Amino acid sequence: MLIHSAPRRAAAAAGALLAALLLVLTGCSTGGGGKGSSSGAHRPSATATAGTGASGTSGTPGWAKGMPTVQTGRLPAEAQHTLKLIDAGGPFPYPKDGTVFGNYERQLPKEPRGYYHEYTVPTPGSRDRGARRLISGKSHETFYTDDHYRTFKAVLR
What we know:
It comes from Streptomyces albospinus. This is Ribonuclease N1. There is one protein chain. The chain has helices at residues 2-28, 77-88; strands spanning 69-71, 99-101, 116-120, 133-137, 142-145, 153-156. A hairpin with a 4-residue loop joins strand 4 (133-137) and strand 5. It has 157 residues and is an alpha+beta fold.
């Protein structure tokens, strides 16, 4: 029995290594505007949009670090509008929009202070800024929270 299981284990290990290699190569080819990018607009490649839904990670770009994802078109209309303002560089309706996001909750990938900036996503009926935010990184990655930083979804654009 041990003699017959060794080839199966070797085949399973080889398959797992091949799958991991494909994931690494796919993640490396998604573009996504690296740190040297001079464009102010967030334009990751279309290959970064394969993972959808609240927990989709298949085809997720490397910067999302395995977190839940959401397609831009599945965000609330107010969040889609805020994304357009971010891409245009403003003007923003709230004084705190564009300020440094400290990532104190450590829910986003670890980066130096000043890497992330936050933007308010208006909440209809709320008397204040509400709990919804978009966070953008210097490499143009974007994250959405609707519970005031407790949880995030990587926005696939």
